[in-house]
Amino acid sequence: MKVYSREELDLLAIQVGCILRLNRLRLNLSQEDLAQQLGINSTKIGRIERAEHICAWNQLLQLWQKLGIDNSKLFLLKEKSQLLSIISQSYKLEKRLNQDKKDYYSFLTKIVETKYKDL
Fold it and tell me: Rounded to an integer, what distance in angstroms lies between the CA atom of residue 8 and that of residue 47?
């Protein structure tokens, strides 16, 4: 079993959130829509997507199932280019792309690049 460093764990949290966001956007669901369907708070979904909140495994499983995500490889850290591609795809699928979201995607890209450099 791989033992992850602190930086790798941070990247995994970002990766999980990005994969959740990408799949939610592909299904044309807002955070509110998804939260309502699952009976959870939409704020929690946003915080998970932004890697600001660690939730219980059963809530993650519920999200994965609803979004059709294969969880068998979710916790295998992807290459930097793969994670940046997920971020780019999500950016392109955003319907309400305001300046705050543009800034967030730019910030997220810089964080990922910095964390991979620190590995």
Answer: 19
Read off the tokens for 23. 């799949």
Rounded Cα–Cα distance for residues 114 and 117 (Å): 5
Dihedral in degrees, nearest 10, Cα atoms 116, 7, 110, 20: 100
Domain with 18, as residue range(s), is 6-117
State which residues of the chain have pLDDT below 70. none
Token representation of residue 47: 């915080």
CA-atom Rg of the chain in angstroms: 14
What is the rounded CA–CA span in Å between residue 36 and residue 79? 33
Q: Is residue 73 in a domain?
A: yes
Please count the other Cβ atoms lying within 10 Å of the Cβ belonging to residue 59: 15
pTM value? Answer: 0.91
Render pLDDT for 78-103 as a digit per residue (tens, 0 to 9): 999 999 999 999 999 999 899 999 99
Evaluate whether residue 1 is within a structural domain.
no
